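Moderator note: this is an archived Q&A kept for reference. The question asked for a predicted structure of one protein chain; the sequence and the answer are reproduced below.
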Amino acid sequence: MATKSPLQGAVFGTAARYFLEVARTGSIVLAAEELHVASSAISRQIAKLEQAVGCALFERRARGMQLSPAGARLAVYIRNSALEGERVLDALRDASRQADTLVRVACTDGFASGVLASAMPAFRRTHPACAFSVHVTSPENVSGMVARGEVDIGMKFSMAPERGLHVVHQQPAPVKLVVAAGHALARRRSIRLRELADWPLALPLHGTTLRQVLDLQFQAEGLRLQGTFAGNLATLLPLVLQGEAVLFSSLISISVHVARHELAVLALPDLDLHPRLAQLLAHDDAPADSLKAGFCEHLAQSIVALGHRDDGNQMLVPQPDNAMSMPDSKVALGVHRPVRSACDLPQMPGESTSP
């Protein structure tokens, strides 16, 4: 372990403080009065500092103490060092405060453009100091980042319950067919896979749980899964909004656009045999009363309130007002119950929000 030299100890200790005060007042007596110490104590510290430096720091004159050229240089150095130290401490304090208010999220593509996109600004309305860092990645990477503590919250779709991680909430996320609001299929409530042969399909990339579901069922029915477009949700969604393709997705991923009446959703009963789970994962280290835990609860409320509806285009989209209270809802592993008073749920045409 490195040890501090006598000079370092003198320059950054009591001797430096006494030295600067004598330099400011020009008198050992006045410096002693300002510092509320004995003049002899200051004289000893000045002598100690001069011995460590190896030269005289003051010129003793009849009118008092005046800095020597070496003393003047040392005074500048000590003052600059003190200022730099304060800047470093301020930066460390700012970083600590930012770490307390920064929520790190890893999620798959469908969550980033759906429920997460609406949940973050809603949460900031009641917690304006909160900031977010979102990493969009594969389902496997989401789990890994949560397990390693690289993020505070993970959101992903899964074909099976997650093992070895803290699952805050999970619920079914059935696959729907998504079309533009003005599309010819928009008034349908459900559709079979065989009926999609004549429509341009927007397909997810291989390696996603959604693509796994589609591959399994199309193969089971002896159908060929051939898309006109393939990519992530950010690439495919504009094509669907323009009416150029139809999309497979869960309501969680396109909730914002459905709430704006830009998209319609149709049930796909052929895919009911392959249930997907929407999972909310969290790192165990977050205190229960932290901002991160509050946002995690807020997300759970949003997913619960969004839910899944098998009755065609009717859909609830949550806009939680108070992310920290859930008076009419219980969020737990595998529980899916509607949230009423904690969320402001915009009403879709023909839908009643009465319990």
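Archived answer notes: Residues 109 and 326 are 27 Å apart (CA to CA).
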